[in-house]
Structures are given as structure tokens and as C-alpha cells.
Design brief:
The protein starts with 5 loop residues before the first helix and ends with a strand. By secondary structure, it is α/β, with parallel strands linked by helices. The model has no long low-confidence stretch (mean pLDDT about 95). About 40% of the residues lie in helices and about 20% in strands. A hairpin with a 2-residue loop joins strand 1 and strand 2. It has 19 helices and 16 strands. Strands 5-4-3-6-7-9-8-10 form an eight-stranded mixed beta sheet, with helices on both faces. It has a three-stranded antiparallel beta sheet with strand order 15-11-16. A three-stranded antiparallel beta sheet has the order 12-13-14. The structure holds S-adenosylmethionine. The site of S-adenosylmethionine has 23 residues, from helix 8, helix 9 and strand 4.
Length: about 525
């Protein structure tokens, strides 16, 4: 689909390129500390840096003008903006609804949209785009409206980093907002369908797609899976409106974060139905919140949703990254909606949140990642039991610059490989240790033998897996030459234990190291 205002958008693209309106240019203008302040919604340091720059140069620059207007949300003189957007012009910018309309008498022009550069490194390389979204609280000077269209936030970056980027035919981005996930998916999918319940969001997303040169994204209006009924996709990604919001009079319902259901029902809905829209072998990746009640642990509830699923039995991997007490949860989201603490309104909303949680017996709220995969009858793992992995990984992640997506794919490959092999086949296979894995040994002072050994994963989830002498020795000997069985045999001799018993003890542990991509098979299939 091409945007109806294609020529204007092309003019904007050309002006932004000529101005060098990039992430690094902005950091260069005001420095990393001012960048960090902006992330905390504070623009004073950045503004002071721009003023200083103009004083030094004796003039403004196009990037400084665009940054002041579209990133800091402040008015600028029309003549300066005309200089920064020579091809688009003020009239064009107003037609694209980036600025308010300007007359000759006006001394300043105000932004009506946020427009900022965005850069990333993903599994396909580095990239740099511009993202239009609604003005945020900082630019508006007050809370955002209930129909606010979000820019790229923390959750957006989390999901785009998690996205598995293997080539696929068709991908779905459910709840596309400004279109950020759809554009990431459009880098590896031949075609992408991006849906949203908000027509305004779809307009903005379509503008962003056009601005950044994407022609393979189709935009559809509708709730949840309605716009794609009867279709299947190789990949579904969704950063859905998962924030738990009291359904009470006078509590704002922000479209960008609240799906209008009670408690965590929207996350449950997405999880229970995503597989209906997956092609065989297709993968759905989403973010979500789940409630911990008096009676049930959050991940147990999520497991129950999977059991209740009316659809196919799917592979499921749920990773809980954080749990918040309900007080902290309420505070976070009331503040996020633009209500400041210590105000009567804040206290009123706080009460509404706690009433809602109390009513349903909720004590804490978990946050995490959900990955579902529809089985593929044609694959070698089709006969294996479905993957059902629910785990709490609350610690820091490992350091992988291009996100977790590649790691997730590698773990699924490792799982499929081991799940499709009998113990005898696994024993006759050769493995290697992943290059990001090191072993840490702890000794009591004066002892020659370690008292504890830990395998540390440098990337991925930064797992720390305690291992005993036998497993540590096996992992250390996995050099791609000796088979697992041969290593077990040699170890049994060395440790003077029964070879069969040692193998029976170690093979399940080897399987789980393959699931975590700590050990890797030397043959792919
Ligand atoms: C948290 S935002 C995510 C935006 C974007 N995908 C991202 O990752 O930044 C959730 C989006 O879901 C949309 N949404 C809300 N309710 C929806 C529904 N019932 N069906 C589809 N989309 C919905 C909102 O309008 C919003 O754009």
C-alpha cells in the first residue's frame, strides 16, 4: 500500500536526510546525559545545549530546529522551520499534520506530532528510521488523551529485540500503533499485515511505513484477530494493550495500553487464540502481564490458559522477567497516564486500582515474554511432546547487541534437535560448547577440587547453570570430535562409576543445555 500523500512524504524524507536528522546527530547536539534526561521526560538540559550551540554558531541549524520542534515539542520561528524543511515547506508539513497551520503573521509554529529519528541493530544489521507519533506529555504540558498513539517505548524495544528474524512469507503485527513492529517484521517477511483498533494509529503507521520506504505492509482496522479472520501467518508479533486497568467510572482507558477487558483477560485472549492464526510451524511472540492471586501463582495461571486452549496443542515458552507488587504496579501506570503523585486525582485512581485488585484477590503482577509455536506435521519433531516451558528469569540479560531474537531461535533449534532424538541417537552425536559460555569454579581456600562450578552464558538470558564434576567434564570435552556416549564412557572410567548409570544421569542434563543453547549440535538436522 502506498500512502495517499506520497509526494509530501517523499519531500519530508528528503529534507530529514539533508538535515542529517539522526540519533547520533541529536546526541551530538546535546550529549548523552541530556539524552538520558529526555528519557526521564526532562528537556531542560537538551534545550540549554541547543541555546549554547546557537550562541556559539551565531545561528541555528536545520537539525537543531527540527529537534527543538519535534523532539522537545517547543515552538520555533516559521522562517527557521522553512529553512529546515525546504522541499516540504510549511504548508506541506501542515498538510501532513506535523505542525499547526501557519499564517504570515505568526511568530512561531507549534508541533502537532512527535517526529524523531530511531536507530537499531537487529539480526539483519543496523538501521535508521524516522518515527512519527502523537505528542507526548512533555510536549503537551498535560496528560495525553485516551486515543494517544504511542511512539517507540521500552516495551516496543523489548518486543522488537525479541523478534525472530528468519525469512517468512507472511507476518501479522497485532496492535501496530506507530507501526514499529510491522516495520521490523517487514525486514524479513515478504508481506506484513498490521492491525489496530485505532484508525488514527493506522494513519500514523502508514505514514511511517511510507516515510521509511516500506511497500510490503498492509494496514487493517479492527479489534484483535477480527481483521485477519480465516487467515494464517508464519509469524505473529504483538505488543498488545496489556496494562491491567480497573473497569470503574472515572478511570481513563488509554487505547494504547488498555484493551478494555477485566484484569489480564486480554493477554489470555491473545494467548488462547494466536495459534488459530498461525500457519504450521508459525511462531507468535508477544508481551504480557499476568496476575498473581491469593490462590494461584501467575505462571500457573498462564499454564492453565494454555491447558484450556480450545485450539491446537502448541509449543509454549513463557519467560517471566519481572513481578511487581500491586502498589508499585498501580503507581507505575497511574503516573504513566500523566497523573502526578501527591494529587487528589492520583489518590483517587490509586484507590480504584486497589479496589479492583482486592476484588479479584490479586497480590502481584508478572510481566514477561510469550512465545507460541504451532506444530508442523511435516517436521521431525512433530511426534515429540509439545514444548511447555514456563520460567522466571528476573535477572539481567546477557549482552547480545542485536537483541534476544537470534538466541530464542537458536534455543528452539536446539530443543527441536534433541527432542527428535532418542537417548541412543543423542549418545552417538557430537556437540560443541557455545562460544559465549565460560565456566566459573569456586574453591575453598587450600582445596584442589572446586566446591562449586557454574556455566555462565555471556549472551541470551545470561543463564548461570550450576554443574557437578561429571557434567562440567562432559561439557568441557564437547569439542565436536568425540560423541557424547564416548565422553560418558571415558568419564565413567575416570570416575570409576558405571558407564550406563552415568550416561542415564547426564543425557537429560545435556538435553536441557541444548534447550538453552549452551551446548550446540554439530549437525543441524
Ligand atoms: C502497547 S501499544 C503497541 C504499539 C506498537 N505495536 C509498539 O510495539 O510500540 C498497543 C496497540 O494496540 C492497539 N489496540 C488496543 N486495543 C486493541 C484491540 N482490541 N485490537 C487491536 N489493537 C488494539 C492500540 O491502539 C495500540 O496501538
Amino acid at each position: 500500500m502506498t500512502h495517499p500523500q506520497r509526494d509530501l512524504i517523499a519531500a519530508l524524507r528528503s529534507d530529514l536526510t539533508a538535515a542529517g536528522f539522526t540519533v547520533s546527530a541529536l546526541s551530538g547536539l546535546w550529549g548523552q546525559d541530556a539524552d538520558a534526561a529526555l528519557h526521564r521526560n526532562q528537556r531542560v538540559p537538551a534545550l540549554r545545549a541547543l541555546t549554547q550551540l546557537r550562541r556559539t554558531l551565531g545561528r541555528s541549524t536545520p537539525t537543531a530546529t527540527l529537534a527543538e520542534l519535534f523532539v522537545l515539542g517547543l515552538p520555533v520561528p516559521p522562517a527557521l522551520l522553512a529553512e529546515a524543511l525546504p522541499t516540504l515547506g510549511l504548508q506541506g508539513a501542515s498538510e501532513l499534520r506535523l505542525i499547526s497551520s501557519v499564517s504570515e503573521r505568526d511568530e512561531s509554529v507549534r508541533p502537532t506530532a512527535d517526529l524523531r529519528p530511531y536507530s537499531f541493530i537487529d539480526q539483519l544489521g543496523v538501521g535508521s528510521w524516522w518515527i512519527v507519533s502523537d505528542l507526548g506529555e512533555l510536549s503537551l504540558g498535560h496528560a495525553v488523551g485516551e486515543d494517544h498513539v504511542l511512539g517507540v517505548g521500552g516495551a516496543s524495544l523489548t518486543l522488537s529485540g525479541l523478534m525472530i528474524q528468519r525469512p517468512v512469507e507472511a507476518a501479522l503485527d497485532l496492535g501496530t500503533g506507530c507501526g514499529i513492529q510491522a516495520m521490523h517484521a517487514a525486514r524479513h517477511a515478504r508481506r506484513v499485515v498490521a492491525t489496530d483498533i485505532s484508525a488514527r494509529a493506522l494513519d500514523i503507521a502508514a505514514l511511517n511505513a511510507e516515510l521509511n520506504g516500506f511497500e510490503n505492509i498492509e494496514f487493517r482496522l479492527g479489534s484483535l484477530f477480527e481483521p485477519v479472520a480465516d487467515e494464517t501467518f508464519d509469524q505473529i508479533v504483538s505488543n498488545p494493550p496489556f496494562v491491567i486497568t480497573p473497569r470503574a467510572e472515572g478511570v481513563p482507558s488509554y487505547e494504547y495500553r488498555d484493551g478494555g477487558m477485566v484484569g489480564d483477560a486480554l493477554v489470555q485472549h491473545v494467548m488462547r487464540h494466536a495459534s488459530d492464526y498461525l500457519a504450521p510451524g508459525g511462531i507468535a511472540q508477544s508481551l504480557g502481564n499476568w496476575e498473581y492471586t491469593h490462590e494461584k501463582d501467575g505462571l500457573d495461571r498462564v499454564n492453565g490458559w494454555l491447558d484450556d486452549s480450545p485450539a491446537l496443542v502448541v509449543d509454549a515458552w513463557v519467560i517471566e522477567r519481572d513481578v511487581q507488587h500491586i502498589f508499585e504496579y498501580a503507581e507505575t501506570w497511574i503516573r504513566d497516564g500523566g497523573t502526578t503523585p501527591a494529587s487528589p486525582e492520583f489518590d483517587r485512581l490509586y484507590g480504584a486500582w486497589l479496589n479492583d485488585f482486592e476484588h479479584r484477590g490479586v497480590e502481584r503482577v508478572g510481566f514477561g515474554y510469550v512465545l507460541l509455536r504451532r506444530p508442523d506435521a511435516a517436521s521431525s519433531v512433530a511426534s515429540a511432546a509439545p514444548l511447555r516451558r514456563l520460567e522466571q528469569l528476573h535477572g539481567p540479560l546477557g549482552g547480545s547487541g542485536s537483541g534476544l531474537g537470534a538466541h530464542l531461535a537458536e534455543c528452539l533449534d536446539g530443543h527441536d534437535w534433541q527432542a527428535s532424538r532418542s537417548d541412543a541417537e543423542l549418545a552417538s552425536s557430537t556437540l560443541v560448547v557455545a562460544s559465549d559460555v565460560t565456566v566459573e569454579r569456586h574453591y575453598w581456600p587450600g582445596d584442589d577440587d572446586p566446591t562449586a562450578m557454574i556455566l555462565r552464558q555471556g549472551g541470551g538470558f545470561g543463564r548461570q547453570t550450576p554443574v557437578d564434576t561429571g557434567l562440567a567434564a562432559l561439557v568441557g570435552a564437547c569439542d565436536g570430535e568425540l560423541s557424547v556416549g564416548a565422553i560418558c564412557g571415558a568419564l565413567a572410567q575416570l570416575l570409576s562409576v558405571d558407564e550406563r548409570a552415568l550416561e542415564a544421569e547426564l543425557l537429560p542434563l545435556v538435553r536441557s543445555l541444548l534447550d538453552d543453547a549452551i551446548l550446540l549440535p554439530t549437525t543441524a538436522s
